[in-house]
Amino acid sequence: MPPVLPYKISVLVFLENRAGELLLIHRNKAPNFGNWSPIGGKLEMAMGESPFECAVRETLEETGLRIGTDDLHLFAMIAEKAYEGESHWLMFLFHCRHPLEVQPPDIDEGRFGFFSRAAIARLSIPETDRAALWPIFDRYRDRFVALRADCAPGRPVRVVIEEVTPPPPSPA
């Protein structure tokens, strides 16, 4: 029988500047210590915080950018099993429609940088992000997809799509 692991709920927020470069944080803390990743954090479950509220709060706390829930597009929900062998995660991925004008100053969590999508492929990023997260962003950021990923250590990440919304209609 596999060990019982804690279940955590979090958000990731994909922010861009006007040039279309994505904001990433080089993390000083676990999870993803020493790697570049989008901003985000865990839901304040004791407060009954929704994923949208969490994304708004984390964006303000980490970047200083004030946004509303209407600035966010929820494009993915991912259930990760046994991430790093430590816990299960339910993650909500948001694309922020409001551009970030300046690079935020460093915070306790890490330092920031803007990167083109091509440059991200050359960065130190978690293997699960390389195998699943960034391909999901590339393919579904204007839609919605629900997935589950088996991230058990010692095996390749296996991603299963559970639902995808149809693409938006083409402009006439």
Task: Write a structural description.
The chain has 172 residues and is of the alpha+beta class. The chain has a single domain (7-164), classed as Nucleoside Triphosphate Pyrophosphohydrolase (Alpha-Beta Complex), CATH 3.90.79.10. Helix content is 18%, strand content 35%. The protein is built from 3 helices and 9 strands; from the N terminus they run E-E-E-E-H-E-E-E-H-H-E-E.
Would you report the number of β strands? 9
CATH C-level class is Alpha Beta
CATH architecture designation: Alpha-Beta Complex
CATH superfamily: Nucleoside Triphosphate Pyrophosphohydrolase
CATH topology type = Nucleoside Triphosphate Pyrophosphohydrolase
Radius of gyration: 16 Å
> Biggest sheet, in brief?
6 strands, mixed
Helical stretch count?
3
Q: How much β-strand is present in the residues?
A: 35-45%
- Point out poorly predicted stretches: none
What's the shape? globular
Alpha-beta content class: alpha+beta
Oligomer: single chain
Order of helices and strands: EEEEHEEEHHEE
The end-to-end distance, rounded to whole angstroms, is 55 Å
Task: Provide the helix percentage.
Answer: 10-25%
Strand order of the largest sheet: 4-1-6-5-8-9
Average pLDDT number: 92
How many domains is the backbone divided into? Answer: 1
